[in-house]
């Protein structure tokens, strides 16, 4: 695992100075030292048009993996792991290529020499890279299929292109002019993260998962009209559904999963795993432990309703791992400054800090950690999927002309219905039964409702947004799913937004902040292509979910774990906030930074704080998202006045 930065100058660039180039490149590369503390390297082409910097965390072939990697054909900086590099090396040797190392970086370079851009289809792994083709004067920038590894990019006013593993490598450049993006602010307060391809800053983008950019160094148009090209998407599989699964498919699926875990356990450094005690991480740990005694790590909370550490310890005992458990208490605010430094932009997932603390502890024992992330998206494990299926059944109980007034009435009197069955009380509002699927799913995935956004945003910001909502973003993906039910639409939305924008971003930043490489076996693209095509009925029946995965798991883990209900890894934010006095909370939220930004309605925020402390509403996530944004403004020294004349286009 590593970090890289690339500066690609337009062929029309004038007056490039060698000393300045070296100084700036070194400064940008140093911002990524935490991603690769073991080695650092630079490359500047003779005409200074291509400048590459790299920091390395040594995982495989520790002594021979220096980057940038120079061959007769190319120069490469790369972040990630190619899990089938041994097979590709054997194939390339058979085609006449010679190797000087056993590291996967050299395999990438030789594979490009052999197959060109099409080599992307041969890769099994997580990767982000910049490859300078010296023979053809082109530059290729690519990101893995699922978006496990990040790439940010920016075009300066003089058409210089910057690429980096993290946002800080872009903003540190002296030519980068940062300006907050109001729509990204809206996305953040709605979803808790900023979905790709955008960032908190106008003009600084994330290269989307499964995309690449190719530049011609001799063509100025290549720098003025930069477009990414998609080479992979799970949409084809989703739109080709299968309604049954054979025993042979289950056997193939189990073999594929075990192969993915085995491949991702290979390293020349100690390897461990996150362990929650649920089916996903238990499968990974059980398979890993067949070959070596595994170090496992779990997180618990001082609020028992949120604590799953006991389940993790049970699995660790059954599998006989070397287990470490941590407990997090209510000092979340103490880590806010580190949170912003990790993510470089507002990020409100309240499990980020516990994950960071756990990996900090794990670093004492391991350098690589496997995680069960991706399984819930692939096998429909989230509660929202089950609620969508329930909504569909409820909507079909009555004709539309009858159901509309009935559900509206129930929604109004709902607080006075203690006799309501559990499945109705589990839904946030019965009125949602009359809404369209996209609106319902967007609300379910939001940390703040549209009504709260109207309350916390200033009139100036609302006028800039001009009715914009991230709901529209969800709809563009939902409309692409042409077969199956709404759950398959929701699954595709998650694969395009929540998975890369939240889950994988969180895993990458929190582990890399502690110089740990995280690997996610469930996102092996072979598994995704096999199982994402399965109809939702095969994974969800009543309150039971992930049925296909549980079938696969039967011969891998104990029966009690196979049937265990999922418990979300979230921290007890509502309770923690009420442990503080209201005056202490207001101080720790740093409300003065929100007030000076002119983007927020401070009386509205005051009202929400009062409501939370009165117990009328649980608004912990709302208050946390505001606190995170205030810390972001503080660290970046910004007073982002929004001018009415701004066009506010992403």
Automatic annotation (TrEMBL):
Question: What are the catalytic residues?
Answer: 2
- Enumerate the catalysed reactions: L-aspartate + L-glutamine + ATP + H2O = L-asparagine + L-glutamate + AMP + diphosphate + H(+)
**Name of this chain's protein:** asparagine synthase (glutamine-hydrolyzing)
The yes or no answer to whether the keyword Nucleotide-binding is present is yes
Q: Does the keyword S-adenosyl-L-methionine apply?
A: no
E.C. no: 6.3.5.4
Record lineage: Bacteria, Pseudomonadati, Pseudomonadota, Gammaproteobacteria, Alteromonadales
The record, for CDD domains, names: Asn_synthase_B_C, AsnB
Please name the SUPFAM superfamilies in this protein's record: Adenine nucleotide alpha hydrolases-like (SSF52402), N-terminal nucleophile aminohydrolases (Ntn hydrolases) (SSF56235)
**A GO CC term?**
cytosol
Question: Could you give a GO molecular-function term held by this entry?
Answer: asparagine synthase (glutamine-hydrolyzing) activity
Binding of L-glutamine occurs at 104
Q: What residues does the Glutamine amidotransferase type-2 domain cover? A: 2-218
Q: What is the protein's species of origin?
A: Psychrosphaera ytuae
Q: Which gene encodes it?
A: asnB
């Amino acid at each position: 695992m590593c970090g890289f930065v690339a500066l690609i100058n337009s062929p029309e660039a004038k007056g490039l100075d060698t000393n300045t180039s070296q100084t700036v490149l070194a400064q940008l590369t140093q911002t990524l030292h935490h991603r690769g503390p073991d080695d650092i390297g630079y490359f500047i082409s003779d005409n200074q048009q291509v400048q590459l910097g790299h920091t390395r965390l040594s995982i495989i072939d520790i002594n021979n993996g220096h980057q940038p990697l120079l061959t007769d054909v190319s120069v490469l900086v790369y972040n990630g792991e190619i899990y089938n590099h041994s097979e590709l090396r054997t194939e390339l040797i058979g085609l006449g290529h010679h190797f000087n190392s056993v590291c996967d970086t050299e395999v990438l370079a030789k594979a490009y020499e052999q197959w060109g851009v099409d080599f992307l289809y041969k890769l099994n792994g997580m990767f982000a890279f910049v490859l300078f083709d010296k023979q053809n004067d082109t530059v290729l920038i690519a990101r893995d299929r699922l978006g496990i590894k990040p790439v940010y990019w920016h075009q300066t006013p003089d058409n210089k292109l910057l690429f980096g593993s993290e946002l800080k490598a872009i903003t540190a450049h002296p030519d980068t002019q940062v300006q907050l993006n109001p729509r990204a602010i809206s996305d953040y307060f709605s979803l808790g993260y900023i979905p790709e391809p955008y960032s908190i800053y106008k003009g600084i983008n994330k290269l989307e998962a499964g995309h690449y950019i190719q530049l011609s160094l001799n063509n100025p148009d290549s720098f003025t009209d930069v477009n990414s090209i998609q080479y992979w998407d799970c949409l084809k599989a989703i739109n080709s559904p299968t309604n049954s699964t054979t025993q042979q498919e289950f056997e193939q699926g189990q073999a594929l999963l075990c192969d993915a875990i085995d491949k991702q356990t290979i390293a020349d450094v100690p390897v461990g795993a996150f362990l929650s005690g649920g089916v996903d991480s238990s499968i990974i740990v059980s398979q890993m432990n067949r070959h070596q005694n595994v170090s496992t790590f779990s997180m618990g909370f001082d609020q028992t309703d949120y604590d799953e550490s006991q389940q993790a310890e049970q699995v660790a005992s059954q599998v006989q791992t070397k287990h470490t458990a941590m407990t997090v208490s209510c000092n979340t605010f103490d880590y806010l400054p580190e949170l912003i430094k990790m993510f470089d932009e507002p990020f409100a997932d309240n499990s980020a800090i516990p994950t960071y603390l756990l990996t900090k502890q794990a670093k004492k024992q391991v350098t690589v950690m496997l995680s069960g992330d991706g399984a819930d998206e692939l096998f429909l494990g989230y509660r929202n999927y089950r609620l969508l299926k329930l909504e569909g059944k409820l909507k079909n109980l009555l004709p539309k002309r009858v159901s509309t007034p009935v559900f509206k009435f129930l929604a109004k009197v709902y607080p006075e219905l203690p006799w309501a069955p559990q499945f109705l009380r589990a839904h946030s509002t019965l009125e949602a039964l009359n809404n369209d699927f996209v609106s319902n799913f967007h609300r379910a995935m939001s940390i703040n409702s549209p009504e709260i956004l109207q309350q916390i945003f200033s009139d100036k910001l609302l006028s800039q947004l001009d009715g914009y909502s991230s709901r529209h973003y969800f709809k563009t993906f939902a409309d692409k799913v042409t077969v199956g039910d709404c759950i398959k639409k929701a699954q595709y939305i998650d694969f395009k937004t929540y998975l890369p924008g939240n889950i994988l971003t969180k895993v990458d930043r929190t582990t890399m902040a502690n110089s740990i490489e995280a690997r996610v076996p469930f996102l092996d693209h072979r598994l995704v292509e096999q199982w994402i095509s399965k109809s939702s009925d095969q994974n969800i029946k009543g309150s039971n979910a992930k049925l296909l995965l549980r079938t696969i798991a039967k011969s891998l883990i104990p029966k009690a774990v196979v049937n265990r209900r999922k418990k979300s890894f979230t921290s007890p934010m509502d309770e923690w906030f009420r442990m503080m006095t209201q005056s202490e909370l207001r101080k720790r939220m740093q409300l003065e930074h929100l007030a000076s930004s002119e983007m927020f309605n401070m009386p509205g925020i005051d009202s929400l704080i009062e409501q939370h402390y009165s117990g009328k509403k649980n608004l912990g996530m709302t208050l946390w998202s505001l606190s995170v944004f205030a810390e972001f403004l503080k660290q970046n020294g910004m007073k982002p006045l929004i001018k009415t004349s701004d066009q506010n286009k992403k």
